[in-house]
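Predict fold of DoxX family protein; 137 aa.
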Amino acid sequence: MIDTKTAPYAALILRVVTGVLFLIHGLVKLFVFTPAGTAGYFQSIGLPGWLGYATMLIEIIGGLALILGVGTRLVALVMVPVMLGAALFGHAGNGFTFSNPGGGWEYPVMWAFVMAAIAALGDGAYALKPLGRKSAD
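Predicted 3D structure, encoded as tokens:
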């Protein structure tokens, strides 16, 4: 049974924590690896370089949107294929456990499911106006 009094706060915690983590990952790509370095890495694993730029932007903008509670369901749904792509192209060859060298695929797959759960839950408490809606969930 869902506790309707605490569920919005649970969704808030998930939304903000995942938003912060995605924002940090995007900022690391921007400031540490650099946009060109991120694009180069994507090319080195057989993906188009532009996908590195797109992933970086999705993580930064999506992370901020999750933190603020803007378009939560849409942003979370967009993050699902990003995380599955990370699992498939960046980590699949490294085994299951994320503590393996290069990180295994279990961690990004777990994040894909967390994003799917957030998409199902919705904004939670203290969200700004969702995209395309007149009032919060």
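The helical segments are 7-31, 35-44, 49-68, 72-91, 106-121.
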